[in-house]
């Protein structure tokens, strides 16, 4: 009996739980529902939409090799998903639907509506917890609550993880052709922005596997030493691929284990630090399910709801455009806007600068990141922003406020990253790039700092103290 696999952020044929389960039951028809209006409502911008489109195209090609046709529907918003899928199920005589779960609230609701509709139509619908080792709700504190702090979550993760949770799912063998044509893939409609050059981020499983291999071969062992230096290529660059499932966490962890004597928690320091980052990713997915308020634009820490964020469009735009007068912040924002990606250290620095130094609502920054990131992912982005704003899990204590100039001298000591993104400062000696001398600013065509660190820090401390 024919099986329908609905692909979403799992754009791969290898190690895909839903696809493997479907193929074990019968011939597979695949479908992709393009939901541009919905994604735009979730703030995804041109970079992400373009990468998504290129990923679907790579998936289609991979599926063709298995004789699996890929149907394509434009549904606009999620509420049209049940009807679109039921129509296909009826047309194609489908006996069961298979999906890998997505965890943000709107995606969960969409899936529930689809499952209800299939139930009513008497067609089976099966969901798989494919993107995480532990289904949310199955890794809980001693009291039976979802973890709201990372370290004990990671400990419990390592303690309880079983080899089956990391075993790669079977890649289906080619099936007999079904006599169903794949749909042609429509071009992206006109978007507000032009996406970054796709050659920077080739889409698909092969490109993802290449990234992983090169990272483990050349950089994995140095990861803990190099991961914080934005001028160095010290991290994997896998985030866009993980976000759309062009590679799975199991593939990443299996590759680590084969380099690290079968271990994830001990052995090479670089590799185990990297494993920890993948666990952060899973942690924030659990947080989205366990604390759905974070999906409703609410802070994780309830008492921070009343925080008096400042309304200051001028400063917000200076931050967006990289004109704050803090070179590391500005260089980072230009990296984001130009490439669709930003180094993790700088995501922390810029997010903290917006939410603390400028005391501007973190939700504005969260949305701006989403509009530009090629790896934009609700759970990780929301988690990162709430962490920086001290409203989230693990909340950075509100009084620990990065000094952007100190961050700059520590993590871009030679000023290379700054010089690359702010050519107007490249002529300065390395030391002066972190805080260009005031008397040179006009000559350099670079702004003076829009806030003074100490005063801004004090203002943020007072705003947080006022909550008590
Ligand atoms: P590596 O260092 O090689 O890490 C490997 C993988 O682990 C990453 O690809 C990512 O999937 C995961 N990961 C690493 N750090 C984190 C983290 N702190 N939280 C969750 N997952 C993590 N990551 C996204 O994937 N999408 C986002 O939209 C996103 N927004 C962020 C916003 C802020 C304010 C902050 C502070 C962090 C954000 N991150 C986000 C997490 C992190 O910055 C990126 O995952 C990382 O920079 C991607 O580069 P990489 O693939 O080279 O990472």
Automatic annotation (TrEMBL):
It is an enzyme of class 4 (lyase). It catalyses: cyclobutadipyrimidine (in DNA) = 2 pyrimidine residues (in DNA). GO terms for molecular function: deoxyribodipyrimidine photo-lyase activity; DNA binding; FAD binding. Its EC number is 4.1.99.3. It comes from the Bacteria. The keyword Lyase applies. Residues 167-179 have a biased composition (Polar residues). Keywords: Chromophore, FAD, Flavoprotein, Lyase. Belongs to the DNA photolyase class-1 family. Belongs to the DNA photolyase family. This is Deoxyribodipyrimidine photo-lyase. The gene is phrB.
């Amino acid at each position: 009996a024919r099986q329908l696999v609905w692909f979403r952020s799992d754009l791969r044929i290898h190690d895909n739980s839903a696809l493997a389960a479907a193929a074990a039951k019968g011939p597979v028809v695949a479908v992709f529902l393009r939901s541009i209006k919905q994604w735009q409502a979730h703030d995804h911008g041109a970079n992400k939409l373009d990468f998504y489109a290129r990923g679907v195209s790579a998936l289609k090609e991979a599926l063709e090799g298995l004789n699996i046709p890929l149907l394509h529907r434009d549904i606009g918003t999620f509420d049209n998903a049940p009807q679109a899928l039921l129509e296909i199920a009826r047309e194609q005589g489908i006996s069961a639907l298979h999906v890998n779960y997505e965890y943000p609230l709107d995606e969960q609701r969409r899936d529930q509506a689809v499952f209800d509709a299939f139930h009513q139509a008497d067609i089976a619908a099966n969901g798989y917890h494919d993107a995480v080792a532990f289904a949310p709700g199955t890794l809980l504190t001693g009291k039976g609550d979802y973890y709201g702090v990372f370290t004990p979550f990671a400990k419990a993760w390592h303690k309880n993880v079983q080899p089956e949770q990391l075993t790669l799912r079977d890649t289906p063998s080619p099936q007999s052709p079904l006599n169903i044509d794949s749909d042609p893939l429509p071009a992206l409609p006109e978007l507000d922005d032009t996406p970054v050059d796709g050659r920077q981020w080739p889409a698909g499983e092969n490109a993802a596997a290449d990234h992983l291999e090169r990272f483990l071969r050349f950089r994995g062992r140095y990861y803990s030493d190099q991961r914080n230096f934005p001028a160095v290529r010290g991290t994997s660059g896998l985030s866009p691929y993980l976000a759309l499932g062009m590679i799975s966490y199991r593939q990443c962890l299996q590759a680590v284990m084969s380099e690290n004597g079968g271990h994830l928690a001990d052995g090479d320091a670089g590799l185990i630090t990297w494993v920890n980052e993948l666990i952060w990713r899973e942690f924030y997915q659990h947080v989205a399910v366990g604390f759905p308020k974070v999906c409703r634009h609410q802070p994780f820490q309830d008492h921070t709801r009343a925080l008096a964020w400042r309304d200051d469009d001028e400063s917000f735009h200076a931050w967006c455009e990289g004109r704050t007068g803090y070179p590391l912040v500005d260089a980072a924002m230009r990296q984001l806007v130009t490439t669709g990606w930003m180094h993790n250290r700088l995501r922390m620095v810029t997010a903290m600068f917006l939410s603390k130094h400028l005391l501007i609502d973190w939700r504005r920054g969260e949305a701006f990141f989403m509009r530009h990131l090629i790896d934009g992912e609700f759970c990780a982005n929301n988690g990162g922003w709430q962490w920086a704003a001290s409203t989230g899990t693990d909340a950075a204590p509100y009084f620990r406020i990065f000094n952007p100039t100190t961050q700059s001298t520590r993590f871009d000591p030679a000023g290379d990253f700054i010089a690359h993104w702010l050519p107007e400062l490249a002529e300065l000696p390395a030391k002066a790039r972190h805080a260009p001398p005031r008397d040179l600013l006009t000559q350099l065509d670079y702004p003076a700092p829009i806030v003074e660190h100490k005063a801004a820090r004090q203002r943020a401390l007072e705003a947080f103290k006022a909550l008590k």
